[in-house]
Amino acid sequence: MPNENIEGKKPLMQRLKTTYRLVVMNHETFEEIRSFKLSLLNVYVFLSTLMVAVALLVASLIVFTPLKRYIPGFGDLKEYKEVMRLSNKVDELEDEIKAHQTYTDNFRRMLTSDVETEKEVPKESVELPDSAYVIKRIPEDEKLRQSLEVVSGNNNNGYSQLVNVSPKDVPLSQFYFIAPLVGEVSKAFDSKKHPAIDVLAPKDTPVKAIMDGYVVSADWSLEFGNTIALQHSNNILTFYKHNSTILKKSGSFVKAGEAIAIIGNTGELSSGPHLHFELWHKGKPINPAEYIKFN
Asked: How far apart are CA 78 and CA 85, in angstroms?
């Protein structure tokens, strides 16, 4: 009893350093196989080191292996950003497919002569959303022009009659073209790089038809935004692009000088409010500045 009281009164550090002998013996012969000298401090340090090592091993498995994917709330930030990027890309592709489908439906209506007449089209403005996506260029204009050449062979309606109204070719110099709008030319015509002319004008300026004609396309594209195309007599085709608002629908007949759109800044290829105007004759781009005075 006195020894136990003395042992219990020793300081904690001294008790931790007290050495003990651990002997491993044969159960039957009591032969000593191995013995170890240790203290409570040694045992504490060993167990603490073992637990830290196990904790580091488990943490490494979680951080550096795919096991982290199975832990709720623990994910890779890079993978999360990649998933979000792919999700946005899918949304962009869906919008691109819808735009292609709109053009395809429009071509099909023109090829089958299933276009609305002026009486069937309600007189109201059509405002389409601006473009915010960036995609590769698509040959939409070329498809439209090719489809118009096919439609011109069908003379069962007013539209096809307008395309080939003249029995023989008439030089463009003999036609009177009304300027689609009056303003400063910001980018000149180039048959290879820029088969059009860009014209600057104040906000909300109306865009006018240069001649009598039919609206063969009134749609929105990712590149050129709100675009309207007119087919005129003598195989003349005009395009008015980057508009903020389209005032006519496909199939409508418009007179020279009639407002067909409002100048804007729609489409990924637009860098500011302006009109991108194209003049085509017999499938070839023509410099509008040679026949129209813009300022």
From this structure: 11
User: pLDDT value at position 129?
Assistant: 40
Tell whether the model's pLDDT for residue 7 goes beyond 60: no
Measured in whole angstroms, the distance separating CA 27 from the mean position of its chain's CA atoms is: 80
Residue 12 is inside which H or E element, if any? helix 12-17
The whole domain housing 27 covers 2-68
Tell me how far CA of residue 197 lies from CA of 190, 207, 272, in angstroms.
8, 14, 14
Does some domain include residue 78? no
- Residue 55 sits in the same domain as residue 106: no
> Is residue 77, in this structure, part of any structural domain at all?
no
171/273 same-domain check: yes
pTM summary value: 0.49
Buried b (16+ CB within 10 A) or exposed e, 184-207: ebeeebeeeeebbbbbbbeeebbb
Q: Is the pLDDT of residue 133 over 90?
A: no
Residue 137 lies in a domain: yes
* pLDDT score of 6: 52
For the cut 50, the answer to whether the pLDDT of residue 156 exceeds it is: no
- CA-based nearest residue to 223, from 103, 109, 88, 108: 103
17 inside domain: yes
| Of the residues 68, 92, 119, the one at which a domain ends | 68
The pLDDT tens digits of the residues spanning 220-267 come to: 888 889 999 999 988 899 999 999 999 999 889 999 999 999 999 988
Q: Does 63 lie in the same domain as 87?
A: no
Rounded distance, CA 120 to CA 109, Å? 15
Q: Are residues 244 and 151 in the same domain?
A: yes
